Amino acid sequence: MAVFSYLARDREGKKIAGTEEAASQEDLINRLQSRDLIVIQVDTQTHAEAAAMKQAGPSTGARSKPKHYGVTADDLVLFCRQLATLLGAGITILKSLEVISLQVSSRKLYNVLKTLKKNMEAGLSFHEAMSKHPDVFSDLWINLVESGEASGNLAAILNRLAAYLEKNAVFKRKIISALVYPIILMLASTGALLFLTIKIIPTFAQLFAGFNITLPSLTIALISVSDFIRKYMVLIVVAIVVGIYVLKNYLKTREGRRFFEEFIFKLPLAGEFFRAIVIERFSSEMSTLIESGVPILYALEIAEHSVGNIVMGGIIRNIKEDVRVGKNLHTPLENSGFFEPMVVQMVTIGEEIGELSQMFKKINIFYQDYVDTFLTRFTAMFEPIILIFMGVVIGIMVIGMFLPIFQISKISG
């Protein structure tokens, strides 16, 4: 029994692709025709290819219903893994793209894969076709694929890329998960303070207005703040929305992003945290690129454009120029003043023993652990700090509202 892949259409004209075992092509064609299918193509397929197709996912030939429009990190990870599996089994890129396009849950990625296949059929290489979609495939993707095509080892490099994408996605989810609770706590605290300011304080103010007493300064200040917020609530909300809109658009510009990044890096505690995140990404990309056989200068150029930070991109550019004129990598790293001595020493050792990719991998692991520890401590400290802050603010409000009540009780007594 041999394994065959087939392409057919049903009576409604819908394409159906799949694999089946049969004694011969004629036997499979007769079997398909007995199901009222119109056979378009039948090809012999090895067992390894069949296993790869099965591992990549079921293919009915019909486009699966898209679940969303945009391309998420999970979509790219799955695409990379599936493509590496299919190519590793000897299936052509064009056939692999056709199979994967039937299974993606992103409408945009589906359209991109169809365009990739069309451009490659027109004569473009895989990385040239990918470069036409910079909003989906980063420089890291394109250059690693180009390296894989040049070396004839595209499946192995795609596996490394998939591992990098998976690790990066997990790392981002950790950061987001760690920040969700503090953000929720901040929103709840802000909501509670607004409720006290808008609803509770005016009620006490009406009560005090019926008595002929001189209010304490703290009470007057609280009532004044409450009146101001209630009177100009709409203007305050509009000002906040406009301010956020203007700031968001400013941060989209190169100058705005640079200013924001430089400001963040100068902060006492947050600066070290964001510096660690940037170095973690840089070391992860360098490890993946060098391990994939990309030359050091080329790897630095890719990292410069894909690290996602303008300040860090400028530092990498300077490092690249120093390396271009013959300097060792560790020298410009040290001169930049951005990297800790530990990073410089590990890169130095990596250059001396010829294990630079492994040293970058160790640096990456160190900074991932650092960020994890920082986030754990931050979330553990944030709750008591917010609770203490809320206690102090609410305590001041309570005292400010009850001081006049004490005066009224004395007058009544």
Distance linking N and C termini: 105 Å
How many helices in DSSP terms? 17
| CATH class wording of the largest domain | Mainly Alpha
The CATH architecture of the largest domain comes to Up-down Bundle
What structural class do the secondary elements suggest? mainly alpha
Number of strands: 3
Beta-strand fraction estimate: 5-15%
Characteristics:
single chain; Receptor-associated Protein; 3 domains; 17 helices
Structural overview:
The structure is a single chain. The protein is mostly helical. The protein folds into 3 domains: 1-45; 63-137, Type II secretion system (T2SS), domain F (Receptor-associated Protein, Up-down Bundle); 153-413, Up-down Bundle (Receptor-associated Protein). It has 17 helices and 3 strands. Strands 2-1-3 form a 3-stranded antiparallel beta sheet. A hairpin with a 5-residue loop joins strand 1 (2-9) and strand 2. Helix 8 packs across helix 9 and helix 13 (296-306) packs antiparallel against helix 14 (310-324). The protein is extended. The model is unreliable at 58-63 (pLDDT under 50).
